[in-house]
Design a protein that fits this description.
Distance between the termini: 55 Å
Structural class: alpha/beta
CATH superfamily of the largest domain: Periplasmic binding protein-like II
Number of strands: 11
Number of domains: 2
Order of helices and strands: EEHHEHEHEEHHEHEHEHEEHHHHHHH
Largest sheet: 6 strands, mixed
CATH architecture of the largest domain: 3-Layer(aba) Sandwich
CATH class of the largest domain: Alpha Beta
Radius of gyration: 19 Å
CATH topology of the largest domain: D-Maltodextrin-Binding Protein, domain 2
Length: about 375
């Protein structure tokens, strides 16, 4: 099997923050910088900070749109956001690097069942929108396309070097899930390579360090248009049936923040709720904003990227029991694969979520 050296991030890495949203990196300028964004509502009475794994992606666009379209301002809140360029960030949340962490709910669930004082406050995205792309030659050799059966597509991953955001992150979990569906052992039958940032993922593929990767749009779209890749799994537009209503991006908080900043958290949820409502009710306005936000993309890539992501957003920030159940089943697979203890029987929806702030926010809209 081919092997490659990935770029790994230390758990003790200090989150670097730079002023402003400038300095977008090469290769269409997304996902490669650590930055700080400040909402334009500088006269608002409240402030909060958020953290994410990458700087610009459709996965985080509900928050970015809430800033850019002044939905947070309507809620009386300033929001500052930063990116770490690594897949798992709950140590940073618990260490007080930010009030709110954006990421996959299963990351939150893993630390919750270990007894850490964190909870999921709101949801943004209900598609497992980390897409799997591989070099087209591998898909062609296997005779599969994006419309092929799930198991046939999953089998293509055997023996490949696949880029991820790191162990425990959503892309890593999804690749392991598909490898298991193909009857493969994720630890032996493929090489999962941690790589930080979308531009680095593209570069690794162009330099033959990896054979494909799992990451959200627009990085996956760029790989298809510029790096000789093809979609194996477009998780936004053609997900496997069991992952069609999958809570993928959520906002997590610590118990301390919930206690000390209830008004800020309610205002944050209101801004997100307004943004989600606008995305569904005025797609042209969202598209106009997104064209400016992803200004480094050429027009063709932007149109593809927009089509691939417009349907990934929840209608409200309140997750459901069904979404919790699907995530728990998915997490059980991952824990079993890793030889770890299963999810406790008494781990419930009520223990995983603290939806007081999102529900209160909806009452005022």
């Amino acid at each position: 099997m081919k092997r490659s050296i990935g770029v790994r991030a230390s758990r003790r890495e200090v989150v670097r923050v730079t002023a402003g949203l400038g300095g977008m990196a090469a290769l269409q300028g997304f996902g490669a910088v650590v930055g700080l964004g400040v909402a334009p509502a500088m006269a608002a009475s409240m402030n909060t900070t958020t953290l994410r794994s990458t700087s610009r992606s459709w996965l985080w666009a509900a928050e970015d749109f809430a800033i850019g379209a002044k939905h947070f301002e309507k809620a009386g809140l300033n929001v500052s956001m930063a990116a770490t360029e690594r897949g798992v960030n709950h140590d940073a949340l618990l260490g007080g690097a930010a009030d709110i962490l954006l990421g996959a709910p299963q990351q939150n669930m893993r630390v919750q069942i270990l007894g850490k004082p964190v909870a999921i406050m709101a949801g943004f995205v209900n598609k497992f929108a980390s897409n799997v792309v591989v070099r087209k030659e591998f898909a062609d050799k296997a005779g599969v396309t994006e419309d092929s059966p799930v198991e046939a597509k999953a089998a293509v991953l055997k023996g490949l070097r696949m880029g991820t955001t790191g162990p425990g992150g959503g892309p890593d979990q999804l690749l392991r899930h598909f490898l298991r569906l193909a009857g493969a052992d994720p630890t032996r039958d493929a090489t999962l390579v941690p790589i930080r940032g979308g531009s680095a993922m593209i570069a690794a593929m162009q330099q033959d360090q990896i054979d494909g990767f799992c990451l959200s749009s627009p990085t996956s779209d760029l790989a298809v248009s510029k790096a000789g890749a093809t979609y194996l799994f477009n998780m936004a537009n053609n997900p496997p049936p069991d992952l069609s209503n999958f809570l993928y991006i959520c906002a997590s908080i610590t118990a301390e923040t919930a206690k000390n900043k209830p008004d800020e958290l309610t205002a944050y949820c209101k801004g997100i709720a307004l943004a989600l409502k606008a995305i569904h009710e005025d797609r042209d306005a969202f598209k106009t904003w997104a064209r400016g936000w992803f200004s480094a993309m050429d027009d063709e890539l932007f149109e593809t990227s927009f089509r691939n992501n417009i349907n990934i957003y929840m209608k409200t920030p309140v997750p459901t029991q069904e979404q919790f159940d699907i995530n728990v089943r998915f997490l059980q697979e991952a824990l079993k694969d890793a030889g770890q203890n299963p999810v406790p029987d008494d781990y419930t929806f009520e223990k995983a979520f603290d939806l007081r702030f999102a529900r209160k926010a909806l009452e005022s809209i």
